[in-house]
TrEMBL record:
Repeat is among the record's keywords: no
Domain Alanine dehydrogenase/pyridine nucleotide transhydrogenase N-terminal: 4-136
Family: Belongs to the AlaDH/PNT family.
Keyword NAD annotated: yes
Enzyme Commission code(s) on record: 7.1.1.1
Gene from which the chain derives: pntA
Residue span(s) of domain Alanine dehydrogenase/pyridine nucleotide transhydrogenase NAD(H)-binding: 145-309
Annotated protein name in UniProt: proton-translocating NAD(P)(+) transhydrogenase
Length: 371
């Protein structure tokens, strides 16, 4: 089979790195790459060539590859240039992008959505959501530190003592936990909140304080994802969060609800109550944002607070983000790729759930996927 690697149009990352190219070539597959695809991830063309891939231009990669993997989905306009019957692997988010399956099907393609791989123990090694979220959580804290006109750690100097920064993390999933760990390493006093009961123990184990709201809806059976909460709970949560936000130098928000808009956790009144110079980093910006005024890839200042909206902060650590993404894709393909090509066993949960379109037929939403 021929594998294609493209330069991402809005990202620094690249979906397949030379390490994986070597393994594909050893398996007797061909690999073509668009020149410059890894340039922003510290991966020069020569590294792809040394690994056994051939340099090409975008049109040729699109029209000649049997399998194309990208970080973000190709634009619809480019799909007509893709080889008929090809397999596209990307993060299609079919639960949020209503038309994506139909579009792939209309072009007669097969689509695998990496974000649909079940978040089970067996599939952990192919979980791009976790790999990227962890990097984003780390980078969110470094970005906040850059914009904060204060130190993070406590310092005792001859000129006096500096108090440590107070950091609040809202949403203690993969990104939030990495943000807590990074904030703690930089010396901040960290508090965190999550609606999932299981998050408490993880927050405490990282040396942060857990902000507890009584009466959360039971989330067991939601596959590790957060569930919608009652109005009463949301009111109590909002009052407690108001108090915590109003004292924070840094607020990192990561709260997402799969397939639905992100909950607004920091409203305008809270921003007004925050100390001047405070910084909010909103990792949920693409799904509506957890912070009032936040916009993806924009930095705005409101009521003296810098609000940084960015759901793709992992892209700012492009080399390692590419390395981990590529490793995740390799582990995923190992499930069904051999020298002969791809074997589609839809009884296998990993294949069945992630294959959203098969040879022009929409599979997303099929009974096997909604079990
Ligand atoms: P996510 O990106 O969907 O959400 C981030 C966090 O925001 C979650 O912890 C969620 O509970 C929280 N949240 C949602 N609404 C909130 C609200 N109103 N207020 C505060 N917090 C809110 O989640 P994620 O980080 O991708 O993962 C969530 C869980 O899934 C974690 O427990 C993680 O450990 C688990 N997980 C398991 C596996 C696996 O077993 N393979 C892989 C990845 C994640």
């Amino acid at each position: 089979m021929r594998f294609g690697i493209l330069k991402e149009l809005t990202e620094k990352r690249v979906a397949i790195t030379p390490d994986f190219v070597k393994k594909l070539v050893a398996q007797k597959h061909e690999v073509v790459f668009e020149k410059g695809c890894g340039a922003n991830s510290a991966l020069a063309d020569v590294l792809f060539e040394e690994a056994g891939a051939q340099a090409s231009d975008r049109t040729e990669v699109l029209s000649s590859s049997d399998v194309i993997t990208t970080i973000l989905p190709l634009a619809t306009e480019e799909l007509s240039n893709v080889k008929k019957g090809a397999v596209l692997i990307s993060q299609f988010q079919p639960f949020a992008q209503a038309e994506v399956c139909e579009t792939l099907a209309n072009h007669g393609l097969t689509g695998f959505s990496l974000d649909m791989i079940p978040r089970s123990t067996i599939a952990q090694s192919m979980d791009v959501l976790s790999s990227m979220a962890s990097i984003s959580g780390y980078k969110a804290v470094l970005t906040a530190a850059n914009y904060l006109p204060r130190y993070m750690p406590m310092l005792s100097t001859a000129a006096g003592t500096i108090r440590p920064a107070k950091m609040l993390v809202l949403g203690a999933g993969v990104a939030g936990l990495q943000a807590i760990a990074t904030g703690r390493r930089l010396g901040a006093v960290v508090e965190a909140f999550d609606t999932r009961a299981a998050a408490k123990e993880e927050v405490l184990s990282l040396g942060a304080k857990f902000v507890e709201v009584e009466g959360a809806t039971d989330d067991r059976g939601a596959g590790g994802y957060a569930v919608e909460q009652t109005e009463e709970y949301k009111k109590r949560q909002s009052e407690l969060i108001f108090d915590k936000v109003s004292k924070a130098d840094i607020v990192i928000t990561t709260a997402q609800l799969r397939g639905r808009p992100a909950p607004l956790l920091v409203n305008e009144d809270m921003l007004k109550a925050m100390p001047d110079g405070a910084v909010c980093v909103d990792l949920a910006a693409t799904t509506g944002g957890n912070v009032a005024f936040s916009k993806h890839r924009e930095i705005v200042k409101q009521h003296g607070v810098t609000i940084i909206g960015n759901s793709e902060l992992s892209d700012d650590v492009a080399e390692h983000a590419s390395q981990l993404f590529s490793r995740n894709v390799e582990n995923f393909l190992n499930v069904f790729l051999s020298e002969e090509g791809l074997t589609y066993d839809f009884e296998n949960e990993i294949i069945g759930d992630s294959c959203i379109v098969y040879q022009g037929e929409v599979r997303y939403g099929a009974p096997a996927l909604t079990k």
